[in-house]
């Protein structure tokens, strides 16, 4: 924590304190297998003793299997501050330490599972050929036989160890939906920094002009890019409509959803961009107005007007 710089804003009622830790220095502390084992020992201790939030020095030392307590203390001290904190006489993981262990368990840094491709019971709306799912290097991807991209999302390797590809598509759909909901509300789903979602016009030779939902996190560089119809997915009235039709959004392939695939776009204003989306969901015609910051500012959904 030598490089830590503390800035406190004491004016507000929240009295918020933010500590900036140099990430390179923090991760350098993990560049040693003993220290990673220490973090894992915390998690194992917690699994064996669910009510204990902290672990004793000697418990951790024995779990890691180091006899020399001076040597063990040295490694533990390297983790203190960012990944481990002292709690009375014992030690416990910080939020960051806990997240490192979560990532190791999820296989984010080590997993190498590959699956597929297998054909799904679904087709491509553009060319009609069968959709295929495959999973490699932490990415679940669905394309058709003509290589049209249908769906793409990251899934931690640990989830792929025993799951079928159909189950992974379902999991990826849930994860993607949660992510887009957070981003649409202005929070990065990867690092929880503030993001500003937007809609933008794009031109491609194949598809001509279209409008996309788009966001980029300035803190972690995660990006989101999807057909503008995605903004309707987490609208309560649209969710209700799909639910009433007996096909809840979470149980369907996204590339088959009308709002993603068959939305007609009318540009109402160029600057700031404002568009109208027209789509028929089942038998129900829906019209929505979306503003530049990807908010649904008007919705005309007759089925729900009771
Ligand atoms: Zn296709
Ligand atoms: Zn981020």
Question: Which structural traits does this protein have?
Answer:
single chain, 306 residues, alpha+beta, Arc Repressor Mutant, subunit A, 2 domains, 4-stranded antiparallel beta sheet, 9 helices, 15 strands, 31% strand, elongated, disordered N terminus, binds zinc ion, DUF7347, DUF7351
Order of helices and strands: EEHHHHEEHEEEEHHEEEHHEEEE
Tell me the total number of β-strands. Answer: 15
Q: Give the class from helix and strand content and strand pairing.
A: alpha+beta
Strand content: 25-35%
Bound molecules: zinc ion
Largest sheet: 4 strands, antiparallel
Domain DUF7347: 23-104
Domain DUF7351: 121-296
InterPro entries: DUF7347 (IPR055771), DUF7351 (IPR055775), WH-like_DNA-bd_sf (IPR036388)
Pfam families: DUF7347 (PF24038), DUF7351 (PF24042)
Structure description:
With 306 residues, the chain is of the alpha+beta class. It folds into 2 domains: 5-106, Arc Repressor Mutant, subunit A; 114-304, no CATH class. It is 29% helix and 31% strand. A hairpin with a 5-residue loop joins β14 and β15. α2 (33-48) crosses α3. It binds zinc ion (2 copies). Residues 23-104 form the DUF7347 domain.
Short structural description:
The chain is α+β, with helices and mostly antiparallel strands and 306 residues long. It has helices at 23-28, 33-48, 57-64, 69-79, 95-106, 157-160, 165-184, 236-244, 258-261; strands at residues 5-9, 16-20, 84-87, 90-93, 114-123, 130-136, 139-144, 149-154, 198-204, 208-216, 223-227, 264-269, 274-281, 284-290, 296-300. It has a four-stranded antiparallel beta sheet with strand order 5-6-7-8, covered by helices on one side. Strands 12-13-14-15 form a four-stranded antiparallel beta sheet, with no helix packed on it. It has a three-stranded antiparallel beta sheet with strand order 9-10-11, with no helix packed on it.
């Amino acid at each position: 924590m030598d490089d830590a710089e503390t800035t406190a804003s004491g004016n507000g009622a929240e009295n918020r304190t933010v500590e900036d830790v140099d990430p390179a220095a923090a991760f350098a502390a993990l560049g040693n297998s003993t220290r990673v084992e220490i973090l894992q020992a915390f998690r194992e201790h917690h699994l064996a003793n669910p009510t204990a939030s902290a672990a004793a020095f000697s418990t951790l030392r024995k779990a890691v299997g180091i006899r020399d307590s001076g040597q063990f203390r040295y490694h533990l001290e390297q983790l203190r501050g960012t990944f481990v904190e002292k709690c009375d006489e014992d030690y416990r993981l910080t939020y960051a330490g806990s997240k490192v262990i979560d990532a190791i368990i999820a296989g984010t840094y080590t997993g190498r599972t590959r699956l597929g491709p297998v054909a799904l019971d679904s087709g491509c709306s553009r060319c009609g050929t069968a959709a295929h799912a495959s999973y490699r290097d932490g990415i679940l991807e669905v394309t058709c036989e003509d290589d049209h991209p249908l769906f793409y999302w990251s899934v931690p390797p640990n989830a792929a160890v025993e799951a079928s590809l159909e189950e992974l598509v379902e999991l990826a759909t849930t994860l993607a939906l949660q992510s887009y909901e957070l981003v649409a509300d202005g929070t990065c789903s990867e690092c929880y920094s503030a993001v500003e979602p937007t809609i933008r016009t794009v031109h491609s030779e194949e598809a001509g002009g279209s409008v996309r939902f788009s966001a980029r996190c300035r803190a972690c560089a995660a990006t989101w890019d999807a057909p503008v119809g995605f903004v309707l997915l987490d609208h309560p009235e649209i969710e209700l409509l799909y639910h009433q039709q007996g096909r809840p959004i979470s149980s369907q392939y996204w590339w088959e959803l009308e709002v993603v695939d068959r939305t007609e776009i009318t540009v109402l204003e160029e600057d700031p961009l404002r568009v109208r989306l027209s789509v028929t969901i089942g038998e129900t015609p829906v019209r929505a107005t979306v503003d530049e910051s990807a908010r649904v500012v008007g919705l005309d959904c007759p089925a729900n007007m009771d």
